[in-house]
Task: inverse folding
């Protein structure tokens, strides 16, 4: 009897720690598409220079992720942003950003991120999870492994969510750091020395019905 | 300094003062901006834990363009003052 109780506890413990996912009214494998015609998704980078802080932001994100709702560690997917769509608020600086020295948008039109692993899952609410993720980040034709933190929020389709898109919605807020020299980016923009490491933030919403 | 020169100097001073005030009111930015980020986060975005910002076309005068404008005004003031001074000498 005691052995049965211990076994039951161990199984219950494994299920709660190994298979952590959303506790929502949907179930099974879902694919979320982050291509938004309304261009409401955003990826941005933040960097400091001696003269001012620079924010580069694009609303042009494409890609899909798939996972089993009850186990977020099954999450896999690929996201990309178009290099030429990144803007910093100054047209001349944007042109410089697209130059060969910086992102070389003509030769490398997309910046890609392929998610390969999800770990350290923390349940913040039934529909909200905090995770650590890692994957292959490709910038200027160079691919390196990157890790970051993300918060995922799941909303089951309702009249309110339909205002944004049909289907269930997945909100993703992610942050990771990129070392520019690792990707062959010369960290100068119009004479200003940009920080070696820039922080990348992603705020996007994907739909399971697009 | 005659009346014309005084008028030119006063106009130049007011123009420079106006540029500085305009620059300060626009946030005293170092570099002139052609776009600004506007927060369009909705209630649904908040529920989804995301924010939504977009670029909107807007001219924000920076110190760079302000300095160029001030230097041009100073050069024009100097040239006009000299022209008036020379004309006065010629007429005498």
Result:
């Amino acid at each position: 009897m005691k052995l049965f109780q211990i076994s039951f506890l161990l199984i219950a413990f494994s299920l709660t720690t190994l298979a952590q996912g959303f506790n929502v009214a949907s179930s099974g494998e879902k694919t979320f598409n982050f291509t938004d015609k309304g261009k409401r998704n955003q990826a941005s980078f933040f960097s400091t220079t001696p003269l001012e802080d620079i924010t580069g932001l694009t609303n042009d994100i494409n890609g899909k992720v798939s996972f089993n709702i009850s186990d977020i560690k099954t999450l896999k997917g690929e996201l990309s942003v178009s290099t030429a769509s990144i803007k910093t608020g100054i047209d001349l600086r944007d042109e410089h950003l697209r130059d060969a020295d910086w992102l070389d948008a003509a030769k490398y039109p997309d910046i890609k991120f392929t998610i390969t692993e999800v770990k350290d899952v923390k349940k913040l609410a039934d529909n909200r999870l905090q995770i650590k993720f890692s994957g292959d980040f490709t910038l200027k034709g160079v691919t390196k492994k990157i890790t970051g933190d993300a918060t995922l929020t799941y909303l089951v389709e309702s009249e309110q969510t339909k205002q944004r898109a049909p289907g269930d919605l997945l909100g993703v807020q992610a942050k990771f750091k990129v070392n520019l020299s690792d990707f062959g980016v010369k960290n100068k923009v119009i004479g200003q020395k940009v920080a070696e490491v820039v922080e990348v933030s992603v705020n996007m919403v994907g739909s399971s019905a697009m | 300094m005659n009346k014309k020169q005084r008028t030119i100097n006063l106009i130049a001073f007011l123009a420079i003062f106006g540029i500085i005030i305009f620059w300060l009111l626009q946030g005293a930015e170092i570099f002139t901006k052609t776009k600004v980020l506007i927060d369009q986060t909705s209630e649904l975005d908040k529920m989804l834990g995301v924010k939504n910002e977009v670029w909107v076309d807007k001219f924000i005068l920076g110190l760079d363009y302000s300095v160029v404008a001030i230097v041009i005004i100073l050069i024009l003031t100097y040239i006009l003052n000299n022209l008036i001074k020379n004309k006065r000498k010629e007429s005498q």
